[in-house]
Amino acid sequence: MTPxxxxxxxxxxxxxxxxxxxxxxxxxxxxxxxSVFRFDERLKSLEASFSEYRQTNPFAExxxxxxxxxxxxxxxxxxxAVRVAVQIQTDRLHDSYQRENDEFLRTIDDNxxxxxxxxx
Length: 120
Prior knowledge:
By secondary structure, the chain is mostly helical. The chain has helices at about 5-10, 25-30, 35, 40-55, 60-120. Helix 4 (about 40-55) packs across helix 5 (about 60-120). The longest helix is centred in the C-terminal third of the chain and has 62 residues, at about 60-120.
């Protein structure tokens, strides 16, 4: 056995030491995780730096405009697709009603001719 193993065995046989109670006043005065690392300050600094960068760098402004351009393009394409679909459906309905109308007029014409022949 190595000396470190012996020490471990020796300390393991001792009774555990209970934790020392910490007064609540001490706990209240401890800094928070946020205050230790200053996340709010760092975030504000990053936002300010990014805002300044966007104002001085035309490429950053162009990149930030991309979503709006894409949205506008998609809207135009969608509007055109809907317009074409509506036009196709309108043409189909028009053709269908025109066929029905032509058939109705032929039927009337045939009936009129038949009635005239019967009268003569």
